[in-house]
C-alpha cells in the first residue's frame, strides 16, 4: 500500500482528505480535553469543560460538541462500569506494566465502535473483504472466543481475554450490535 505522487507538492499542500473511520479521545484525557474536538480545558472560552451530566466520565467544550458526539449516546450508560472493570483489570496487571486503564478502555471502545459500524453497514465491509461471511461471522467468533475456557491454537490468550472483556463490558447491551447478545456471554 502507498500513496504515490505524480507531481511535486510544496510543504503544507493538502494531498489527501478523508474522514476517519472513528475518532476517540484517549480515555486518560476525557476530563481534560473535549471528547469531540479535543480542545484542551485551558483553551476553552470559559477555561472549563462541561462533563456529561449522566456518566461524568467525559467532557465537552460546548453543547454543540456534546450534540455532535454520535457515539456517546450509546456508550454513556456503559462507561462507568467500563471504567471500573478496566481499572480493576489493569490494577491486577500492574506488575506486568502492560496496560494502563485509559489505554485499555480506549482500545475496547474503538473495537466496539468498529463492530457497530461494520454491523450497521455490512455492504461497505463485504465489498472490501470480498467475502460476505466475514461480517456474519464476527458476532459468532467474538462470542465463541469469549465463552471458551481458554484460547485455542488459532486464538492467542490476549485475543481471548480481550474478547471476554469486551463482552463483559457490554452487559448493558449498548456498546455492541444486538446480534452480539443473541447468546448469553456475560459472566
TrEMBL record:
InterPro entries: SET_dom_sf, Znf_MYND. Keywords: Metal-binding, Zinc, Zinc-finger. One of its GO terms (molecular function) is zinc ion binding. The keyword Coiled coil does not apply. Residues 34-76 form the MYND-type domain. This is MYND-type domain-containing protein. It comes from Polarella glacialis (Dinoflagellate).
